[in-house]
Amino acid sequence: MRNLDLRWLLCVITAGTAAPVVAQERFEQEPILYTTAASQDRVAQLQTQLARDTTLLTHGGHSGYLKSLLIRLEIDAASQVLVFSQTSLQLRQISPHRPRAIYYNDDAYVGWVQHGDVIEIAAVDPQLGTVFYTLRQAPDKPPRLVRDRGQCLSCHASARTQSVPGLLMRSVYCDASGRPWFGAGTYTTDHTSDFRKRWGGWYVTGQHGTMRHMGNALSLDREAPTQIDREQGANLTDLETRFPVEPYLRKTSDIVSLMVLAHQTQMHNRITLANHETRQALHYDTVMNKALERPADFISATTRRRIQSAAQQLVRYLLFTDEFPLSAPLKGEAAFQRQFTARALRDRQGRSLRDLDLKTRLFKYPCSYLIYSKSFRDLPPAVKTEVLNQLREALLGEAVAAHLPPDQRQAIASILSETLPGFRLRRAAAASPPDR
Questions:
Q1: How far apart are CA 149 and CA 324, in angstroms?
Q2: Distance (Å, rounded) from C-alpha 436 to C-alpha 434?
Q3: Which three-class secondary structure state does DSSP give residue 418?
Q4: 77, 250 in Cβ contact below 8 A?
């Protein structure tokens, strides 16, 4: 495999350089054991099934195992977004003329490159965080999913992923071949990002009125790399004039899909952070309780503060605090929006956290739909209870959710009370005993 020896890996969704690497030792120690612990994500489950029946994936010509893999992972092709910056595992195969395609659902991500040696995959495990895999594009050999054993964390466990094994969406300035001008600066993209700093190195299709972004634009002046033509890349609906679109499953790189992806990647990271912070803090207390001959269930004030802080960060992101406001409406591909909203859990009034707004914000009811994810469901009880308590207080008061008008807070609270097990408008009892 030509490119697998590259040291700066961005395994699935990166479009930029990585921040300084966070020491990985803590992920390899108790209680996380990132490299050695068995993963329970959906790719690991498919890996187990393939060991029994290799016919579950079929090779299909130019795209190889891509179509079959998407079906097995329940990923809709309408989620397709395209990135042309040379910032991923198989960078030598990527250019503005031949972008990389990314497909995703709520907990799995697939990256496909034309003529690539492998398909790149990331899946979110409730306990480990994001786990990375490759699938070799070899039609003459049985399909085999290979799990990365920590190498991807050199980029995917940094301050830009909330310092946990996570996902990263970046915006960069690219030259005509797709090479990033790293010295010009790069931007991590989530729902708080300034619209003008989004999607450098990505193709973007869809309408966005007078707002401008970095997508579809090349940086052609080495002396002034930040000078790009945002007008040329604005409100683009047809990519056929940019590169040959026939090899791809769709002809688009949908703006609404890109918006959802930007929110979702960092939402996963914050859920993982809450999980790891809690488990690490409680594990430390367990060790110290034994050493100091304290009761086994003693929880220190430091641990309580760590759990409360992690919960607060999670609640703020859940409720789209500091979301960048849209100054013009967005119009994307109907196919993506149909498949995205089809998975909605709705209350008796038909409202859902997947209902899109696209006029002044991304969602009509700004509370992340990933609150229904397995990763959120499987949070340690101590932090999950704290998150639900803080969320309830934010929706009934104004401290954290002051950016939302009272009718929206009430609507979100009502939706959650009918669709999220364990969420009640009355405060739950504390999950842990008082300090002794």
A1: 36
A2: 6
A3: helix
A4: yes
State whether the Cα torsion 79-84-88-91 is positive or negative: positive
Q: Is 342 exposed, middle or buried (0-12, 13-18, 19+ CB in 10 A)?
A: exposed
| Domain locations in the chain as residue ranges | 25-254, 256-419
407: Cβ–Cβ under 8 A, 6 or more apart, which residues?
A: none
148-205: per-residue pLDDT in tens?
Answer: 987 777 778 788 898 899 999 999 999 999 999 988 889 999 999 999 999 999 999 9
Return the amino acid letter for 399: A
Crossing angle of helices 381-396 and 255-291, rounded to 10°? 130
Question: For the segment 39-77, what is each residue's pLDDT rounded down to a tens digit?
Answer: 999 999 999 999 999 999 999 989 999 999 999 999 999
CA-wise closest residue to 323 among 267, 243, 257: 267
CA–CA dist 405, 331 (Å, integer): 25
Question: What pTM value is reported for the model?
Answer: 0.91
Q: In Å, what is the CA distance from 420 to each residue of 28, 110, 353, 357, 370?
A: 33, 28, 11, 22, 11
Measured CA distances, 62 to 66, 112, 119, 371 (Å): 9, 11, 13, 37
Q: What is the DSSP letter of 331?
A: B
- Quote the CA–CA distance of 43 and 432 in Å, as a whole number: 34
